[in-house]
Amino acid sequence: MQQDVSASSVWSERRLPRVENRDGDHRSPYQRDKARILHSAAFRRLQAKTQVLGVGLSDFYRTRLTHSLEAAQIGVGICAQLSVKYPQETSHLALDSNLVEALCLAHDIGHPPFGHGGEIALNYMMSDAGGFEGNGQTFRIVTKLEPYTKEHGMNLSRRAILGLVKYPNFISRLRGTNSETATKPDKLRVVKAHDWLPPKGLFDCDASIFDWLTAPFSTADKDLYMALKPGKSSLGHSKTQHKSVDCSIMELADDIAYGVHDLEDAIVMGMINQAEFDDFMQARISDLQVEGLSNNFSQLSQRLFNQEHYERKNAIGALVNLFITAIELVPLNKFESPLLDFQAQMPEQYGQALDLFKQFVYLKVIQKPEIQLLEYKGQQTVMELFEAFASDPERLLPLNTRMRWQNALEQNLGMRVIADYISGMTDEFASRLYSNMFVPKRGGTHDTLSL
């Protein structure tokens, strides 16, 4: 018999027990979690990190910060829908919109500068030291790095941390045999991105925190939660299969924000036109027979590409609402814990429709040569910064990072500290630091470059 989650306090526990009770603070644990995320330096840095288009090209389109804010709003909307459609189940799960909002706000804080290019760069440079992956870095920031506490990061509640784990296994177990035998090029400038895609998971050095996180689960639940399946990567990486119900809501909110809102950016920036959109989408959407979309596609397309801004905003809002209201709460009937057994899911045809929007953005925007050139440039910047710091950490790292590096040497984790440092940089900070380090007559003792 599954226990009612609302009757259990184990999920609101923190690794560092609360020692100071503030008078008049009547917030729930998840409201405190949200506040800690909102007030963190890691969250603020999202304002200057690439979402799809490079920061600084325009002041209109989304950064990682505005994307996360929009995902949070969508996540709250999903909670409201599920609470009305499934009142008994959401009460049983103690579904909390403050918690989901917090997860959506924090879901991208581990992503390095320059988006995908920065992630590839750090995974390449860390290939002999545990690898790098943005979601694994998010886990490190909230549980260890963010200086809200001395050594427990933001010290979030157990359920909040669980909700941020999209891929509950370790990179060493997920890494494919094809990637393990890959030969590292002699020169950084010939590193091919597709050869160094990271498996999506956690870092081995954070295993003890993951053990604390999953302690309330039975052995059978934990094993199934961490179960793997073959992935589609040419590198042979495996994939995880399961996540918590809160995480499933956060992931859907992220997907909707990415597929719909990033499309809006591309339209406004003139990177795509209506003919391209119709050619790619119309027949495919029609075949899916999605009520409210397939039969109205022509009208939707006209509104999306209308010169009147309000027409486009109305179309974007209608699309977001279409996907939010379609989401269902489904029991897997596999797990003892309801937090793992229930999942927020989109009906198949709606999920396929959202995937088409995401594919269109990927093919027509992200894969554009001018965007890939920026990614490559960011990739080179990150690799060269890493190479420099790793060559002489005691000389080049800032004082507080150098102290962390020295302490980490005992566990053979010095390179992980360098990855932590560089991944925390904004696009602008990394670019300016690169210029100060490598461009003659740039930089000086009066420049402030401490994180």
Report on this model:
- The protein has a two-stranded antiparallel ribbon with strand order 1-2. Strands 3-4 form a two-stranded antiparallel sheet.
- The protein has 451 residues and is mainly alpha-helical.
- The relative contact order is 0.14.
- The protein is built from 23 helices and 4 strands.
- 56% of the residues lie in helices and 3% in strands.
Q: How do the helices and strands follow one another from N- to C-terminus? A: HHHHHHHHHHHHEEHHHHEHEHHHHHH
In order across it, which strands form the biggest sheet? 1-2
User: What composes the largest sheet?
Assistant: 2 strands, antiparallel
Pairing-aware structural class of the strands and helices? mainly alpha
Radius of gyration: 22 Å
Query: What is the percentage of strand-forming residues?
Result: under 5%
The DSSP helix count reads 23
Mean pLDDT: 92
**Uncertain stretches of 5 or more adjacent residues:** 54-60
Q: What proportion of the residues is helical, as a percent range?
A: 55-70%
What's the number of extended β-strand segments?
4
Shape: globular
- Between the first and last Cα atoms, what is the distance in angstroms? 49 Å
Notable features of this structure?
56% helix; two-stranded antiparallel ribbon; mainly alpha; two-stranded antiparallel sheet; 3% strand; 451 residues; 23 helices; globular
